[in-house]
Amino acid sequence: MATDFLYIRTQSALQQFCEDLAKESLISFDTEFVSEDTYRPLLCLIQVATQDRIAIIDPLDCEDLTLFWDLLVDPDRTVIVHAGREEILFCFRATGQVIPNLFDIQIGAGFLGYEYPASYAKMVHRVVGRTLDKEETRSDWRQRPLSRQQLEYAAQDVRDLIRIYANLTERLHKHGRLPWLMEETRIKQEELSDFETSENWHRLSGVSSLSGKSLSIARALWNWRDARAKQRNIPARKILRDDLIIELARRGTADPRRVASLRGMEYRNTKQLIPELAAVIDEAASQTPPTWPRKNRYGKGQPASMLTQFLSAAMAFICHQKHIAPMLVATSDDLRDFVLYRLDREADPSNPPALLRGWRAEIVGRELDDLLEGNIGIVLDNPNSEIPIKFFRRS
User: Fold this and answer.
1) 187 vs 85, 192, 354, CA distance in Å?
2) Distance from the CA of 45 to the CA of which of 108, 215, 301, 362 falls in 20 to 30 A?
């Protein structure tokens, strides 16, 4: 099915389009980008839809997108996306702000019991009854000129967003869940903006096994690698692998010969970095070890696996009953934190875990509390059912 759209490739056309877009209170957008070879994803297309038109903006021709990004952070406008992680980040990098009225249809669908995370193709098929063409999924969006087929593929990714939004909004409003969606969207945007503006050395695989001087070295090497990758505009992993950072930090030596003896340092592109790496390690070794980013931890150790499995089954039943996607509600870490918090007699009541805050407390937290306290129990109901258990209240 061919899609009509406006293809914007000049600054003057973009300005005119943004002037028209400023009159709209509801817009949807998506992006096409390539992330394999650059420090940050390279934005290649922006697709925008209103109630009555679709436009495709070419960022490789329209270098100044300020007018467009500013429209998204206007609090008088609702912005619709699907699984909008990169869209949020593109906007945040351009404006330094989150999108105040963002509606992510993937999250909205989860609040109505759809599979989470559901692909856009599944959402379109389920709500609109249309099958999307996925032939251009692996297109190299950097190449110019783009074919008509590529542009139509890009346009279809926003064609139905507003229609799906209207469907989900009506149902979320009916069930009183729109505030939950706004709360969850705000939290996810805050997490992304924090990720974008923070040092993320603590995310290195294996870094939790380090301490003292080794931790200082790991942080210094991560910051050095990040700065170098940004300067060269290439992925950080192409500068120095995570496992090499961890092993260099664990060895803790600035001796170039010992650095060179590490397996993985023999490749030409890595070998030439040895003097620089040795200097970074030498300087970091005398620094005060960094503190871990604050992260709420509840209790010590791990709760009994049978207990968390029991609560996981209970949560699946609750979510099934209340038509909400379990994966939207809680991770295994969330369940662990809940159990540790409830079993800790000295737990801080002003700092509850995720399952006892906001909409999660309302929809599952209280019933999980009842289970732990023995007020309700679980029995086998129908072994042939997808959810074969049910609750019973103890007298």
Assistant:
1) 12, 9, 11
2) 108
What is the total residue count of the chain? 395
CATH topology of domain 6-197: Nucleotidyltransferase; domain 5 (3.30.420)
Q: List C-alpha distances in Å: 55 to 82, 159, 347.
A: 17, 10, 53
Is the Cβ–Cβ distance between 364 and 383 less than 8 Å? no
pLDDT along the chain (395 residues), means of 10: 85 97 97 95 97 97 96 97 97 97 97 94 93 79 94 95 97 96 96 93 92 95 96 95 95 94 87 94 93 69 83 93 95 91 86 94 92 89 87 82
Task: Report whether 382 contacts 317 (CB < 8 A).
Answer: no
Delimit the CATH 1.10.150.80 region(s) of the chain: 201-284, 305-393
Determine the CATH number of domain 201-284: 1.10.150.80
Residue pair 178/45 in contact by the 8 Å Cβ criterion:
no
Find, among 80, 132, 87, the residue nearest to 108 by Cα.
80
Alpha-carbon dihedral angle through residues 122, 127, 131, 133, given to the nearest 10 degrees? -70
